[in-house]
Structure formats: C-alpha cells, structure tokens
Request: fold
Amino acid sequence: MNMSIPYETGGRTNQKARTRTALVAATRELLAEGTTPTVEQAADRAGISRTTAYRYFPNQRALLVAVYPEISVASLLDDKAPTDPSQRLDLVIEQLTHQVVEHEPELRAQLHLSLDARASASDQLPFRTGRAIGWIEDALAPLREQMTARELHRLALAIRATTGIEALVWLTDVAGLPAQDARELMRSSASALLRDTLRNHASISGRTAPTSTRSRNAGRPRPH
Reply:
C-alpha cells in the first residue's frame, strides 16, 4: 500500500522521507502510550509544524494507516514449507498472530476507525484488504485437490475470523487472557477448524481425513 501524496514526490525527497518517518515514529509512540493521536498531536511529538504534518497526512485516518508496516508478500511460507496442510497452517497462524500482537496499538486504532462509515476505498485500512485470507488460503493449498475453491475460501474466512485483531481484543479485554495465551488459543482454534472441516468433508465423501492431520491433533483439547 503506497500512501505517498504528491507533495512527497518532488524536491528534497530525502528530507521529506525523514519528516515522514519522524511523524510515523511519533504516532507509534503515542499509540503505545494509549493515545490515538491526531495529526496535530503527532506533529507536536515529532517537533514538526502542524502545517507541514498536514502536507504528509491530510487527516487522522491517513496517519494511522501509515503506521502499520507494509506487508505485501503473497505468502508467509518459504520454499522449504511442509506439504502437510495442518503444519503449513500452524506456521502461518504463528506468524500472523505474532504480527497482530506486535502491532496491537496500531491495529486497535485502525479497528476503531474501521467503524467509521465515512471511510472510502482510497484510505482502506490494512486489515481490510484481505491479505491475511490470502496467506491462509496459501497454507491450505495442498487441499485444492480434495476441496472446491469455495470450500477452501469459506474455511479460510472461518480461520481468519478467529485470528485477527478483533479476536485478540475479545480474548484479552473480555476474556482476560494474557496476549501469549490469546495467541495460543487462536492457533488451536485455527487447527480445530481445519481438523473438523476435514473430518466433515471426509465423512461426506466417504474418505478418511489425512493421517498427518489426524495424528498431529490427536488428544489436543478443543477450544470453547
């Protein structure tokens, strides 16, 4: 996602890059302190004039979109990734939940802004672009010969619903879990969804669920 505006593209680009970096860093500091900053507050913290700050970020939403690091990779798995879907999914969910916890302040602020009906496609928030769903579908790719594209997509949606910032907020704020326990529960929920889906699919088709998936999850308690 490229949030640069025309002002930043011409003349003294190095200086402008430093100014932008300072504003983003100041915003992250304020978010970590529990403040959802306005452009003015970020400018004051960075020691930059408010007029200058608005040249980079015309509103609070644009500022908060910029603080989440750009993660544009199509896959969270490398060439050495296993072929077993449960192992692949666990690797992806481990990385995904790490990102959510690491960037919790930024994502909480963006979650709040996501409820704003005035938002437009041009300032779409990072977690609303569907990239996590693509990562999950990539993890489930070995199942494409067993399941239809629609079935895989629905499974990816179900898993995504248990692993994002929305789930973290509920698990920590409402259920009272520490962040690490919340991460583990999100991972076990994703595994349970995959296991149950494969079991149901195998039952309908008259096949047995993949051995690796069954053995890996044997005895694991199911989340409530």
User: Anything to note?
Assistant: The chain has eleven helices and no strands. The chain has two domains: 13-66, 85-216. The domain at 13-66 is CATH 1.10.10 (Arc Repressor Mutant, subunit A).
